[in-house]
Design a protein that fits this description.
Elements lengths: L33 H10 L2 E5 L6 E2 L3 H15 L12 H11 L3 E5 L1
Parallel strand pairs: 1-3
Antiparallel strand pairs: 1-2
Helix pairs in contact: 2-3
Length: 108
């Protein structure tokens, strides 16, 4: 078939286009605990308060507790265990000691 407009024939091999589709979702980078490290280096341990009736951390640095706990668990918890209740008490104590290096927790 003659193309009177001079356009290339789309069925020819010279017009093949490779389309790469990425199924990966945009994600944030890993939390490295930089803010907590900076605080620990300049001001010492972070104090976290847990009020007895609330059973959750409160105060200026309460979010640092969950971030640091997540970092420690991702880096040091046994990977072959799928649920927290399957982690041995010995492993939990080791993880808690790592958490307590930079954080003071007081229950009031």
């Amino acid at each position: 078939m003659d193309d009177s407009l001079g356009l290339p024939n789309p069925s020819g091999p010279e017009n093949e286009t490779t389309i790469i589709v990425s199924n990966s979702k945009k994600q944030r980078g890993p939390n490295r605990g930089v803010a907590l490290e900076e605080h620990y280096r300049t001001k010492g341990k972070v104090s976290i308060f847990i009020l007895e009736g609330l059973n959750r951390p409160v105060g200026e640095h309460h979010s640092k507790l969950s971030r640091e706990a997540g970092i420690i668990i991702r880096n040091f918890a046994p990977m072959q265990i799928k649920r927290w209740d399957q982690v041995s008490d010995t492993d939990k104590d080791i993880l808690l000691k790592k958490l307590m290096v930079m954080i003071n927790i007081s229950i009031e």
